[in-house]
């Protein structure tokens, strides 16, 4: 593509377009080939008409692609689409969801800074904080996710960032994002929300007052368990810091994976609606089973934050966790008795998955840390896919029958 190229009518006019239209068309800039689908640019570098043009692009004096470690047309297409869907000024794609979290902290925090993290976060996030961030002089403290007063009380003069997942993994606990954003503004800190479980189809944290949103695009954005990737979205002043980090450190998203994610975004709302309907039906069914001690799903009226979920989400998500009587042995018997569900720790797939958090996603945490996060030995996490609900119930019934 040349700088003189003007696509004109070939590109879509998206002024005022709705969410689903943006999910299908946003960010695409057609080349002189006039391709209808998004182009896949598998190139490491780019050529210039002259030495002067190369110098201007490398210095930032003029626009243009330089090197695919930090700029690629396919990746840019994905970033611009996510930014519009999350109502952000800019988005930056990364090689994985964990790379998105790492890039956010490394770009916006320094040695001596303090960050607050919800106790209810993914196990690898805790490992990142404990094993690596602390090694480089970043202080980390953990706070109960839904306790607004605890977040406020834990802030220090050097607090730079508050990080949380809402809903949490795997207990579907929620934070009042509006209330936390007020605390963050009062304390002068950044509020970062992992929106992986909801996606922008169900929740837009930036519109609720958050400063930054992060995603593991590996999950629902892809939707079929094919590729690894992550993305961060927020104000341009913050995202430009991430661009600089990716340019130097290199945890960038591959163009192929970006292209796959673009295809996933096209059906995001349709898929999330189907996921959520099935999850609701299964959660209501599990509550009625005598072998089940507790079901964690914000769509249930018995969930302590059911009303909050209704207020800040358009649906309740696709992850249902439940606790069996009998601890780990009961949980393992249940999992091993299933024949349809995939035993894997991934989620966001069209295929439903089942896992035992205490020995997989949160298995590297100390017993004390697991207890603080509410991860008990009898807990099972389901990530509901797109199969027939009747077939999923029949498979879960196998697990229940194995308890007798």
Task: Report what the structure shows.
- It is built from 15 helices and 12 strands.
- The model has no long low-confidence stretch (mean pLDDT 95).
- The chain starts with 18 loop residues before the first helix and ends with a helix.
- Helix content is 39%, strand content 14%.
- It has 2 domains: 20-264, Type I PLP-dependent aspartate aminotransferase-like (Major domain) (Aspartate Aminotransferase, domain 2), CATH 3.40.640; 268-402, Aspartate Aminotransferase, domain 1 (Alpha-Beta Complex), CATH 3.90.1150.10.
- It is α/β, with parallel strands linked by helices and 404 residues long.
- The strands form 2 sheets. Strands 1-7-6-5-4-2-3 form a 7-stranded mixed sheet, sandwiched between helices.
- It is globular and about 75 Å long.
- The chain has helices spanning 19-25, 51-59, 73-86, 97-108, 123-133, 148-154, 177-187, 199-202, 236-249, 255-266, 268-287, 306-312, 327-337, 367-373, 389-401; strands spanning 90-94, 114-118, 139-143, 159-165, 190-194, 212-216, 230-234, 292-296, 319-324, 342-343, 353-355, 379-383.
- Helix 1 (19-25) runs antiparallel to helix 10, helix 3 (73-86) packs parallel to helix 10 (255-266) and helix 4 (97-108) crosses helix 9.
- Strand 2 (114-118), helix 5 (123-133) and strand 3 (139-143) form a beta-alpha-beta unit.
């Amino acid at each position: 593509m040349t700088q003189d190229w003007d696509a004109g009518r070939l590109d879509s006019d998206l002024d005022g377009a709705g969410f689903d239209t943006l999910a299908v068309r946003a960010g695409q800039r057609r080349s002189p080939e006039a391709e209808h689908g998004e182009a896949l640019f598998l190139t490491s570098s780019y050529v210039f008409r002259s030495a002067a043009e190369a110098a201007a692009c490398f210095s930032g004096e003029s626009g243009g692609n330089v090197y695919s470690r930090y700029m690629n047309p396919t990746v840019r297409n994905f970033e611009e689409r996510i930014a519009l869907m999350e109502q952000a000024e800019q988005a930056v794609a990364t090689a994985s969801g964990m790379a998105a979290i790492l890039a956010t902290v490394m770009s916006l925090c320094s040695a001596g800074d303090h960050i607050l993290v919800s106790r209810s976060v993914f196990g690898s996030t805790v490992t990142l904080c404990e094993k690596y961030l602390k090694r480089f002089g970043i202080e980390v403290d953990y706070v109960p996710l839904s306790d607004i007063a605890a977040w406020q009380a834990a802030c220090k003069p050097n607090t730079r960032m508050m990080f949380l997942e809402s809903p949490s993994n795997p207990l579907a606990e929620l934070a009042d994002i509006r209330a936390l954003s007020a605390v963050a503004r009062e304390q002068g800190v950044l509020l970062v929300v992992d929106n992986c479980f909801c996606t922008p189809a169900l929740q837009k944290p930036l519109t609720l007052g958050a400063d930054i949103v992060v995603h593991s695009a590996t999950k629902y954005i892809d939707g079929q368990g094919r590729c690894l990737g992550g993305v961060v979205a927020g104000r341009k002043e913050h995202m430009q810091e991430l661009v600089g980090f990716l340019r130097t450190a290199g945890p960038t998203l591959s163009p192929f994976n970006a292209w796959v994610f673009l295809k996933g975004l096209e059906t995001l709302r349709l898929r999330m609606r189907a996921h959520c309907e099935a999850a609701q039906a299964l959660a209501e069914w599990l509550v009625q089973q005598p072998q089940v001690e507790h079901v964690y799903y914000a769509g249930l009226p018995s969930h302590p934050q059911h009303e909050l979920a209704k207020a800040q989400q358009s649906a309740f998500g696709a992850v249902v966790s439940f606790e069996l009587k009998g601890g780990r042995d009961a949980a393992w018997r249940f999992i091993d008795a299933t024949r349809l569900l995939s035993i894997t720790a991934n989620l966001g797939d069209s295929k439903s998955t089942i896992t035992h958090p205490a020995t997989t996603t949160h298995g590297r945490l100390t017993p004390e840390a697991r207890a603080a996060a509410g991860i008990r030995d009898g807990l099972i996490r389901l990530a509901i896919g797109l199969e027939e609900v009747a077939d999923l119930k029949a498979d879960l019934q196998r697990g229940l029958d194995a308890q007798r």
